[in-house]
Amino acid sequence: MELSDLTNSTTAKNVVVFDYGFGNVRSAERALAHVGARVEITRDYDKAMAADGLLVPGVGAFAACMKGLREARGDWIVGRRLSGGRPVMGICVGMQILFGRGIEHGVEAEGLDEWPGTVEPLRAPVVPHMGWNTVKAPEGSQLFAGLDEDERYYFVHSYAVRTWELEVTNPHMPSPKVGWATHGEPFVAAVENGPLWATQFHPEKSGDAGARLLRNWLDTL
Questions:
Q1: Keywords for this entry (predicted)?
Q2: Which pTM does this prediction carry?
């Protein structure tokens, strides 16, 4: 499918970009609108709950993002949406805060704990990890559907989750699909887990490949 066809592939979906003061909300808005979504930037509870999809961006320190999210009741909104099977997508630090905790400069902060795991400093010769990198997509991925394995995505981060800890023991429950990237060491770059999806990279800054990823998400809403 060509990029020019993406906006016509499904009926437009309503997406709220959650505005809690810690994300590139305008970039996300433009990228989603470009692939055919009806987008609103807001922290309004009713609008965030009613949207077909909720996108949670994030830029800055883990602890500061969590503080801002809680002050905007975003932690409660994310939890309520997920308990009802309503789609949520996190980007960059908006992905990191979905894990149990983050450690930055020796300071530990609690995350949303949707997934077990710790956000820690990347162990790499050059930090931050800034620029384009490939992602090893999981088998059967919907997020990376239609994308080549050598596609590159835009990363800006110094911290990451280095191990995936969630174990699904119920044979009737699907296992999360986890994508990996490498910068000095492997780290979690993307997750698809029922209604909760996330990327460590910035799809809104990743050109045509990022647009296809966002379109793939919209197609599931």
A1: Amino-acid biosynthesis, Cytoplasm, Glutamine amidotransferase, Histidine biosynthesis, Hydrolase, Lyase, Transferase
A2: 0.94
